[in-house]
Design a protein that fits this description.
Blueprint: H1 7-39, E1 41-45, E2 51-53, E3 55-71, E4 74-78, E5 83-88, E6 95-96, E7 101-106, H2 108-169, H3 174-231, E8 234-236, E9 241-245, E10 253-254, E11 259-264, E12 269-276, E13 288-293, E14 296-310, E15 313-319, E16 331-348, H4 351-355, E17 360-364, E18 370-375, E19 377-381, E20 385-390, E21 397-399, E22 411-415
Parallel strand pairs: 1-22
Antiparallel strand pairs: 2-21, 3-12, 3-16, 4-11, 5-7, 5-10, 6-9, 7-8, 9-11, 12-15, 13-14, 13-16, 14-15, 16-20, 17-18, 17-21, 18-22, 19-20
Helix pairs in contact: 2-3
């Protein structure tokens, strides 16, 4: 039959269960902590991450711009005279010296014009020579006539004066005296007329010679122009440099003014930069500019700011010691330095800033085997660095590669690379 259990035994049995409950509770808490720690801890290999130390120093304020390498001297070689391409002596990419013949054209119409112009010049020169001969002959003839008329005038004057004296003394009749006076007047009139005729003829001859000389000079000028145009059929390099553009074929017909080639001087370049209008207030002539070439930073400067905006961007000219070996038209990333901060903590820019929103980073412990998440405050930025305002000390090492794979773990275990 059933026996009633005393109360003190019931209490004793219940007290025996309590330790097991406590042990189970401790196991659950410990497991939860352990599981949470596992879930909040990530693992990476040391060769899968990048890191950098917090540095104290000077930070440059800067912004980026796009640039194109542009030669200082460029010459478009155009056809001064049209014609057919007979010979090509250089090709695209070749270097030429000033005066070298790049190509040769032919123009039959121009040659015929040259022959016709030479014939016209010869004819006009002959006309000028004949006119000068006739002018000299006319001058001599007029001088002879004037001299004869002058002598005749002197004879008639003497005869008139003699008869005038004789008539006054009554030795000759009045009629004879009047005839002598009339002969004297006729001789004087004839002399004056011949003098006027000689002057008029001389002026006419001089004007005719001037007109013929002008015609000859004009024809000779036209002849020189035609010869110059024929000389221009040999297209010569106006400067030393490299042919960067020339697409021509033998036999091709070229019209006057057509672009034949482009010459560039590859010994001196500048960078034509395009800056967003957002940075206009920070932009000034003389500002330093930096480009990277073959792993080295090259310092240049802004020499000119163009006044006009094009597509919300302004053009700037950047000059300095640009190394040889760079190509015309090469695109470049330019860093224009505007201001600076002294004695600040900073880290290099990286994807980690975007992944953490700039509010937290992973700081590597001194042993290099783990990293912990820490809240930070970032400040001034340029294209290379970011200022650390709060949360980090000089010399601390921070993971600067992407945090996406870490999934915002609280801590990171860093294993050795394989």
């Amino acid at each position: 039959m059933d026996r009633e259990i005393p109360k003190h035994e019931q209490v004793k049995r219940k007290l025996k269960i309590v330790p097991w409950i406590l042990v189970l509770f401790l196991i659950l808490i410990t497991g939860q902590i352990w599981l949470r720690r596992i879930l909040r801890t990530g693992t990476v290999r040391s060769d899968e991450i990048l890191s950098a130390r917090v540095i104290r120093g000077r930070m440059e304020g800067s912004f980026t711009a796009d640039g194109i390498l542009t030669p200082v001297s460029t010459y478009n070689v155009e056809a001064m005279t049209g014609g057919r391409i007979e010979a090509i002596f250089f090709n695209t990419g070749d270097y030429v010296k000033q005066g070298d013949t790049i190509l040769r054209l032919s123009n039959d119409d121009l040659k015929l014009n040259l022959l016709a112009q030479e014939a016209a010049v010869t004819e006009q020169v002959n006309n000028l020579s004949n006119a000068r001969i006739l002018s000299n002959q006319s001058k001599l003839s007029q001088r002879l006539k004037v001299a004869e008329a002058h002598n005749a005038l002197k004879r008639e004057r003497r005869s008139f004066e003699q008869k005038q004296e004789l008539q006054q003394k009554g030795f000759i009749s009045l009629e004879e005296y009047l005839l002598a006076e009339e002969d004297f007047q006729i001789a004087r009139t004839r002399f004056e007329y011949l003098q006027e005729e000689a002057r008029t003829d001389s002026l006419y001859r001089e004007q005719q010679l001037l007109q013929l000389e002008g015609a000859v000079n004009q024809l000779q000028l036209s002849l020189r122009q035609i010869r110059n145009r024929i000389n221009e059929l040999d297209v010569r390099a106006p400067m030393s440099g490299q042919i960067t553009q020339m697409e021509l074929k033998l036999g091709q017909i070229i019209s006057s003014g057509s672009l034949l080639a482009v010459l560039e001087d590859d010994t001196e370049y500048y960078i034509k930069g395009r800056v967003d209008q957002y940075y206009l207030s920070r932009l000034s002539e003389g500002a330093e500019a930096r480009i990277r070439h073959h792993g080295q930073d090259l310092m240049l400067h802004v020499s000119k700011i163009h006044p006009r905006l094009v597509n919300d961007k302004i053009q700037v000219d950047i000059t300095g010691d640009i190394p040889l070996g760079m190509r015309s038209g090469q695109s470049l990333a330019i860093e224009i330095i505007t201001d600076s901060l002294d004695d600040v903590l900073y880290l290099p820019q990286g994807q980690y800033l975007n992944d953490g929103g700039g509010h937290w980073v992973y700081v590597i412990n001194e042993d290099g085997k783990s990293a912990a998440r820490r809240a930070v405050k970032m400040g001034f930025r340029n294209i290379r660095e970011v200022e650390v305002v709060e949360g980090l000390k000089e010399g601390e090492e921070v993971i600067t590669s992407s945090y996406i794979a870490l999934k915002e773990k609280e801590s990171i275990r860093i294993r050795e690379a394989r």
